[in-house]
Amino acid sequence: MQTSNPQARAEAARRNPRAALRALGMLPVLVLLCVAFALVNGRFASPQNLIIVAQQASINLVLACGMTFVILTGGIDLSMGSILAAAAMAALIVSLDPNLMYLAIPAALAVGAGFGVLNGALIAGVRLPPFIVTLGALTAIRGVARLMGRDTTVFNSDLWYAIIGNGNFLGVPWLVIIALSVVGLSWFVLRWTVLGVYIYAIGGNPDAARLSGIRVGLVLIFVYAISGLLAGLGGVMASARLFAANGLQLGQAYELDAVAAVILGGTSFVGGIGSIWGTLVGALIIAVLSNGLILSGVPDVWQYIIKGLIIIGAVALDRFRTESGART
Amino acid sequence: MAEPLLSMSGIRKSFGPVKALRGVDLTVWAGEIHALMGENGAGKSTLMKILSGAIPADPGGSIRIGGTAVSITGPSDSRRMGIAVIYQELALAPNLTVAENVALGREARRGAIIDRARMRGDCAAILERLGAGFTPETKVGSLSIAERQMVEIARALSVNARILVMDEPTTALSSRETDRLFALIRQLRDEGMAIIYISHRMAEVYELADRCSVLRDGSYVGTLPRSDLNAEALVRMMVGRELSDFYEKQHRSGGGAEVLRISGLTDGRKLRPADLALRAGEVTALAGLVGAGRTELARLIAGADRAAAGEVRLDGRPVPLRTPAEAIRAGIVYLTEDRKGQGLFLDMSIEDNVNINVLAADAVGGTVRRKRRARERVAEAIRSLSIRAPSAAATTGSLSGGNQQKVLLARLLETRPRVLILDEPTRGVDIGAKSDIYKLIDRLAAAGAAVLVISSELPEVVGIADRVLVMREGEIAGELTGAEITQEAIVAIATAAASAV
Q1: Where are the beta strands (DSSP E) in B233-323?
Q2: For the ranges A94-98, A166-170, B129-133, which has the lowest average pLDDT?
Q3: B135 and B211, same domain (yes or no)
């Protein structure tokens, strides 16, 4: 909460430049990466390429926003990639029916939110650990996604909402606009609504939250519903980009990229501390890394290794930096 | 004259611009129990952390052990010099056995193989010396807090510690367990150990200490020998001013209407069905030994736990209290005894902590926060409860215990409760804040609230309560009013001594 509070931030900056640096979080790392790639390869900093980076970040960013809500409560949602696949399948299957085709997007969102509510109900109602529930859901929903398309790829070359995946508005891809809208809405919920405070409160101290009269179960169901809904939205975006969906392959390991973005953004893995801006920076770091390494001609195998090490290194750096300051 | 066992002089420590210690002296002799007192934030913990090597002192001061100047740069130095610290939050692994915990980090071994037989043997010898009622094979998780403390002491003895630091060891103990601990501390002293005993409780210091040193605002104030120890002198040294009327009982009770009545309330396990009534404008204390069921009863009334049977009536009307939310809506609030574990959101600002119960009521359409209203509320709370904090945006985790408690109280007060249940409201709180909290309780009662205070400190119960209910083994065993309220009477009921008389 501390770093998302402008009063505290301004005060911290005044007292001590180190604290100001801390409030910036991973932004310096992002800037550093951009500068380094721009120096190595002139094409990196071109407007066209930067738009491509933003577009590549967009689906992960949407998932990472959902993941931020979940991790802030001290949970995790490992099923996001599978939910994304199931939602994309639902969207494409509905879009192939001439009578129902315009219900494709609502269908995808409903599938996503529905699975999310199911996760939330198991976690809040039956009191199972989030890791276990969503790990099970990761596998089970992947199966459902394959079942929906009878384990084949579903195509729709005439997809009515394909503009979402491939079109622009004033030069900005729709994918990017959608992702930034999700960031803005998430920021509003976390920062300006009662629910947002409750989410931080539950992550910080669930017992105290209950004693304060917060209905912890309802908030948890909401949080997993949101992460499911955003995974559904991710499904719409992915299917719009590809005109197709494959229940087996689509969205594999997407949840891990989302977790990486959230953690890179400085959100505490045990909950209660973090911000949506951090997640935005985290998702951009991941996208910049992928894009920059490709442009620099680094072989695919090495890209994986470098990306992994940078994620660990960046978080280690953050730990080291914040050690002397606030508790994490 | 021989050298003192430990002599610290001119110890300084700054955290950024904050001076935590400004040249503190402390001299401790072998074979003495040396109490260390001071308000929260006075620097006791910092001084002890320097002694234990957890943090380095600023250059300039000196530490001598047995007359030799030493430098403590890390925990291993400190351990080698025979210093052992037992913190308030015990540092034991509950999943391991007593012997494993005692030997942790220094396991006896033959080559790469752990020598369990020797570990058990060494441990058994120490436990016998301490008169412990458990064996080396016992899992620590199955021991009580008091027994776990004994394990910590055993660990200190196993490294031949000569200086033992204990930070508020009795906070979670019943009075019987406290007596046993004190006997053990005296035994260790008589064996020649130096014990530095940190405590907020005057009574303990009188009973136990050979000498008492006082810190205030990071400075050393002075040391009193046992013969000069008295409450007035200590309080004056700690707060730097006279505390004439420490306990407040300005309000007049007796005339108020009955607000809350519970009948037959039970959790179906530990608590026998309980009946009690609280009146407006009255402070009722719930006394009894730790484990008598006071907290359990309070949590039922507050909806924190679900009652198995019984009824709660507010103004004569039955109210359902299945969740804390329902209790708060009915006007019943509960101050938990576990402020950090179940009360505060330590990473959140004071502002959010104070407002959390009223956020939804204040919000536009119950959803969008009115931040200006929240800022007004917190500013008013900081003023009226004299909370000492750099700003309302500071995290509550950064505050001292007393100020944290005030933040928690402020949160409860925002809901304008009719019934307040305060569970150990002054536990781990410094003297200045204690006095503020007593004043607040008095003010609330005068304004017509019904207050139920659970307290293990008898002088506090006698000082603030209009009426005392004493619990024993899960039931309300007796009631005292007016002049009947004495420490002796309460103890007699709590320990069932009265029935024998």
Answers
A1: 258-266, 274-279, 283-288, 309-314, 317-318
A2: B129-133
A3: yes
Cα–Cα distance for residue pair B413/B410, rounded to 1 Å = 5
Nearest by CB to residue A1, choosing from B349, B363, B392, is: B349
Q: What is the pLDDT of residues B197-218, one digit of tens each?
A: 998 777 788 889 999 999 887 8
A201 touches chain B (CB under 8 A): yes
CA dihedral sign, ordered B201, B202, B206, B209: positive
Burial class of residue A126 (count of CB atoms within 10 Å of its CB; 0-12, 13-18, 19+): exposed
Counted residue by residue, chain B has a size of 501
Average pLDDT, whole number, for chain A? 89
Pick the closest to residue B192 from B1, B32, B8 (CA basis).
B32
Q: Which residues of A touch B329 (CB under 8 A)?
A: 213
Q: Which CATH number fits domain A26-321: 1.10.10, 1.10.3470, 3.40.30, 2.60.120?
A: 1.10.3470
How deeply is B498 buried, as exposed, middle or buried, from its count of CB atoms within 10 A (0-12, 13-18, 19+)?
Answer: middle
- Taking residues B316-328, report their average pLDDT: 91
Q: Does B323 touch chain A (CB under 8 A)?
A: yes
pLDDT tens, A82-93?
999 999 999 999
Q: How many angstroms separate the CA of residue B10 from the nearest CA in chain A?
A: 25
pLDDT at position B130, please? 83
Is residue B1 a part of any domain in this protein? no
**Residue B455 within any structural domain of the chain:** yes
Q: Report how far apart, in Å, the C-alpha atoms of B207 and of each of B145, B188, B197, B201, B230 are.
A: 22, 16, 12, 10, 11
Say whether residue A130 is in contact with chain B using an 8 A CB cutoff: no
